[in-house]
Every structure is written in structure tokens, then in C-alpha cells.
User: Fold this.
Amino acid sequence: MAKTERTALTIDNIKRAHRERRREIRERLAEFAEIGRNGSDEDLFAEMVFCFFTGGCSAKMGINSLAAVRPILGTADVGQFTNALLGVHRYPNARSKYIVHSRDSLKEQIGLRLRERLERFETADERRDWLVRDKSIKGLGYKEASHYLRNIGYKGYAILDKHVLNCLAELKIIDEPKPPNTRSRYLSVEGKLRQFACDVNIDMDEVDLVLWSMKTGYVLK
Assistant:
């Protein structure tokens, strides 16, 4: 496991961290792309559920929570999901409701054909807006929707969690690490991260994971 960066955040140590972790980061991104290319619609829904779990919680908690419910993802009711998540997730009942509402609504509206629906959008923003705004999906804000799309192979979305926001604030790219709570604010900060990635000549998806790993010490999903 890589060590968390303890020195002041600078362009030089970001580039150094990228060199050191580039192979691991690219392998992780390749795993995401593989899910997007060859995963079933059930796999795509499971990745969505993972992102329900990570909202306000850690990626590790999300991984453990998905493992706890994956065998019953297609059939369980709220009570069964809640029981499976007790002692695993911070909000077992609320997240169970997200799963059941989204699963049942998506089955009714699109037959859970997520790949077909996501590929239909003409722009990246339209695709993400649908995930956030459509009432058939409960539990995705702009950060979680971006996380989901990245995890199923879509490129160019920023996952503006507390670790990345803290990095951007330390670099004076944003004034404070406050989570953007509207669409326009999210797009504004995302645009600043995209420009930063261009300035340091690191791929947008890679720079997101580099910054995250510098705060956490590891590269996860």
C-alpha cells in the first residue's frame, strides 16, 4: 500500500506521485473500462449500488457493503437489505431504500437495461444529469453520479469528494474545500480540475485518482 503524501502539496510531488502510481492507476481504469464493455446490466446496477453506499461514506465501506448485498441484489426487499447491512454500513435502512426504489423503478421504466440507456445520450453532461435528476434513481448526487460513470468506463468526470476538494484548496485552485451543492458549482469546480490536469499534462481521470491516493494512501474504485 502506498504511503499518504505528508509534505506540502505541490505540482512536483503530484507529478512524482503520478509517476510512481501510474501503472496501478491505469490498471484500475482498465478494470472500470472492462466493466463498461463486458459487464452485464446487473453488473452495472451493482456499480450504481456501490455509489449509493459511498455517498457520505468511505470507498472501503462501499466495497464491504456491496459484498454484503451482492448475492441478494436482484431479489431482496428493504428489510432483507437492512439486515445484510447491519454492522457493515453507517446507514443500512436508508441505503436499502435507495436500492429497492432504484432497482424496481429502473426495471419498470427501462427493464434495467442500463447500458442501452446510458449509451443513448449525446453528451457527457446529459448522461450525468439523467442519473441525478431522474426520479427512478434515488441516491446519486453529482459526485456519486460522476463516480458511477467513471467506475463503468466513462471518461472525463471528476469525483469531487473531500480528498480531491482538499487538494484543490491546498493548491489554491478553489477558495475552500466545500462540496459544490448545485449543478453549476459542480461543473465550475470540475472545469478547474480539468484545466489543472491539462496544465500538469496528466490525464483528467488519472489526476483525479492521483490526488485521491495522495490523501488516502491507496488507489481504489
Remarks:
- Residues 39-151 form a domain with the Endonuclease III; domain 1 fold (CATH 1.10.340.30).
